[in-house]
Specification:
heterodimer; A: 177 residues; alpha+beta; Aminopeptidase; six-stranded antiparallel beta sheet; three-stranded antiparallel beta sheet; 4 helices; B: alpha+beta; 8 strands
């Protein structure tokens, strides 16, 4: 399957498109991508986008590509490649679009979708201790530090644990009409 | 799906991964410099599936019609960073090499890419030393058209296919 399209208050979360792949490649060329393993060459960034799409085909879930007012602004969703111990809720919002709460809004919508549709959770997020903006997002989402994760490429990583699905709480996303 | 006398060429799916992992862990892959750990193979496989979503096409998995066993892959491939549109093939189980499966699949795929897909040219990139695949390319009517150095710095031979009408 490919990703469905879901909506939150200001954002659209959906499948990969050529425009999203290009925006991701541009982001991966910069030092700002250091917390997701960058900078990466064009070919490798494209492959990263392809793997994200392939996860949907293999697992039935994966990262959503996030748009605001028709513009690609990032990638948010559940990342669970074969070699990981558990699925992770991960988010990237490109620098030009940060500071507006998009990461929190998109990650909450993707988390709700994963809990409601897949029955997953409570999900974790793996966050570099130096990634202050992402730590703030995790806190706004109600996640708490569970403990250190194995270091990755010299990065010190903490594992954050999100709250589980709350009964009676309306999801923060809706499906495309 | 493409059907040939002995093969089904079907979209890549999770059930094809174990045979791919076994192939990439084995000596034939090692000899070609393709050796990969199981999780690396899984990652490559996910990327090939995503290739289909980004490009609209991807290699097919090759299954034996007689018993459904997974034989390998064959199909159109054009990831970012690769100079030209390619038709590629692998036979994964050692026991299924040398039976003409790759020839049978590649001929059908060439008909598909030049026919249904409307390609006007297609190449196969073949490693120096991979004489089995080079021989197959020649049997398919391809001729060597120089070499190409991949973005990773590996020089491969370019075999250019003649147009095939299915």
């Amino acid at each position: 399957m490919t990703a469905p399209t879901i909506h939150s208050a200001r954002l659209k979360l959906g499948p990969v498109t050529a425009a999203h792949a290009e925006a991701f490649i541009a982001f991966c060329a910069t030092e700002d991508s250091r917390f997701i393993g960058g900078p990466a060459e064009r070919r490798d960034a494209w492959e990263g986008a392809a793997i994200g799409a392939g996860l949907w085909a293999l697992l039935g879930y994966g990262p959503f590509w996030v748009s605001a007012q028709g513009q690609p602004v990032g990638r948010v969703g559940v990342y669970y490649p074969d070699w990981r111990a558990e699925p992770e809720l991960a988010w990237v919002i490109y620098p030009a679009h940060q500071g507006q709460g998009y990461a929190t809004e998109a990650a909450r919508a993707a988390r709700d979708w994963a809990y409601v549709t897949l029955g997953l959770g409570p999900l974790c997020s793996l966050i570099d201790v130096a990634n202050a903006p992402s730590i703030r997002v995790a806190q706004k989402l109600g996640a708490v530090i569970e403990g250190p994760h194995e270091p990755n490429g010299g990065h010190e990583i903490m594992r954050w644990r999100h709250p589980g699905a709350e009964s009676g709480q309306a999801p923060t996303y809706w499906m495309a009409p | 799906m493409i059907v040939t006398p002995r093969l089904h060429l079907v979209p890549l799916a999770e059930r094809h991964i174990p045979a791919y992992q076994t192939f990439l862990a084995g000596p034939r892959a090692a000899a070609l410099g393709w050796a990969a750990l199981p999780h690396e193979a899984w990652r490559n496989f996910a990327a090939m599936m995503g290739h289909g979503l980004l490009c609209g096409f991807a290699p097919f998995a090759m299954e034996a019609r007689e018993d459904g066993r997974v034989l390998g892959l064959c199909g159109p491939f054009w990831p970012e960073g690769q100079l030209e549109r390619e038709v590629k093939w692998h036979i994964w189980p050692d026991a299924d090499e040398g039976k003409g499966y790759a020839f049978e699949a590649a001929r059908a795929v060439l008909g598909h890419v030049f026919g249904t897909m409307g390609w006007t040219t297609a190449v196969s990139y073949i490693a120096h030393g991979n004489e089995r695949s080079a021989g197959l390319a020649r049997r398919l009517g391809a001729v060597q058209d120089g070499c190409w150095t991949t973005p990773r710095g590996t020089e491969v031979r370019v075999f250019r296919h003649g147009r095939v009408v299915a």
